[in-house]
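Notes, Module 5: Reading structure tokens.

Key idea: the token line is not a picture. It is a compressed description, and you learn to read it the same way you learned to read a sequence, by spotting repeated patterns. We will look at two proteins. The first is printed below with its tokens.
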Amino acid sequence: MSQKEIFNRSTLLLGREGMKALDEARVILFGVGGVGSWCAEGLVRAGLTHLTLVDSDRVCPTNLNRQLMATQETIGQPKVEAMKERLLSINPKADILALNMMYTEETAPDFHLEQYDYVIDCIDSLRDKCDLILRTTSMERPTLLSSMGAALRIDPTKVRLTEFSKVQGDALARAVRNRFKKAKTFPRRKFLCVHSEEPAMQNKTEDTTLTEELKFNKVQTNGSLCHITAIFGMMLAGEVIKGER
């Protein structure tokens, strides 16, 4: 099957120049979970060719309700490898680099962010998220796009894309800002975040998989649903597509 056939509908809407720009864009995506997996899918289905996936996690049963690459068959596999296989089944000619590792302050130099046009942040860890934001915005490029909290929401009509400093009512955004204030270090450039204006709900039952989740550096788990995390991911993908048309 030719690339022309695969991306016929994308080309009709974006035009040949738009498709060329999307094909040449380089994107690195940190966090291939409930938000990141859908973002990756949206990008590759639209025509993005060069995508780097970064995540140290493995697919587990609790991922099945919201993460695109999570199936009964992929449980136990590294998320980036399962996602790469999925994306190549859509476009076998895509250049997908799967890095089964964590982004931290220590590993940050290994990713060579300056080589990318877009950095997409779907990281759960507050410390690592803040470091990625500060590091990316300290450079003239790439463009940074970030995901705030998608958990504890059920209303898809409340999802928004907003400049970070203007995000209200999001606990993760508040925690990020507080960390910046405490360290007296702030982003040097403005950047967009996907978030929800819906007030966060409360979990109605206790989590019975906390011990399992702690293995993946999570100290707390909250309820989340596919129709929200997918919208978050697709909105991030859409911003890249808009920027390249």
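Here is the second protein, with the sequence above and the tokens below, as before.
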Amino acid sequence: MLPKNERLKERYLFNVAFNIGKKNGQKLSSDLLLLYYLFKKKNDQEIQLPKTAFIVGTKVEKKANKRNLIKRRMRMSYRSFRDRFANNNKLKKISVLIWIANPNIKNATFKQINDSMKNLLTKLENKQF
């Protein structure tokens, strides 16, 4: 589980991330995952890791224990990349990350999820903003 200050729980931040992500193209996708992200406000530049949420819907898997397994794999994979946000100047500007599982993730292994997450974070680093 992520530390409390890194968990995204505020409903308004979910809504803002989804609306801005759809409007301004602040989303990235791969075959297994979809990533929505928000930037920090200009006056909020203190070093802080982004608030993160992991979503696996019932369209992916109907059984809760399988959805929870997928979420655990996503969280473990994210933990291995968390240090990137403290060291990279471009990634320090991000305040919210929402990871959404696509239906293809149902049969994916941890390594495949890890590679997909790594590719999305690399795309995010290389994106011009």
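Summary for the second protein:
- The CA atoms of residues 1 and 75 lie 7 Å apart.
- The first helix runs from residue 11 to 24.
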